[in-house]
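Researcher: Here's a chain I'd like modeled. Treat it as a single chain, no partners, no ligands.
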Amino acid sequence: MAVLLKDAMQPNLVQTLENNPAFVHGGPFANIAHGCNSVVATTTALKLGDYVVTEAGFGADLGAEKFFDIKCRKAGLKPAAAVIVATVRAMKMNGGVKKDDLGPENVDAVKKGCANLGRHIENVKQFGVPAVVAINHFVSDTDAEIQAMKNYVASLGAEAIVCKHWAQGSAGIEELAHKVVELAESGASQFSPLYPDEMRLFEKIDTVVKRIYRGSEAIADKSVRDQLTAWESAGYGHLPV
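Model: Modeled as a single isolated chain. Structure tokens:
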């Protein structure tokens, strides 16, 4: 096993379909781990490119929170901008439309479902990072549905841009790329983790529950609290959760 893994710490350099370099290294799912690629891959990319794009898996309430609070904190990274990917279909589902009924136009459902997108935008803004919304376009999307999403995002002080990279490659996402560069170069980012290192472990959990998931409080029985206290006594209290 050691022989098989002797090169595992070195990121894999690959080439995209349009001849751009990309590192593939790590990247576990955010529902079972931190949801980000390796620190080595990201820091290496920052030394080699003018702009580095990395993914924080799942929604801004899961992957992005872990990316900001765990990876960026421990690696000293300061993101200049964030892209929140959303679809008209997802807004419809959040608005109460069943999966089999997503085809027909339903602007009212889109408007209703945008409340979910709004939470993600608010979550990212809590970290001081400016965000833009990428509307991942489907052929079934109508102009009225897309405009409803754009209007909602604009009401929150952000911008939504239609992206057709699935069908058109880089040409279909060029507008978004220019917007990301604009945000990154604006100096608007004032990145800061959600909680300080010195906060107690259970308080960190409670902070995530309240500020990211909008829960009233975190509840844990004595055994959980005792385990957290034991970790603090062992010198691990400064770590993120």
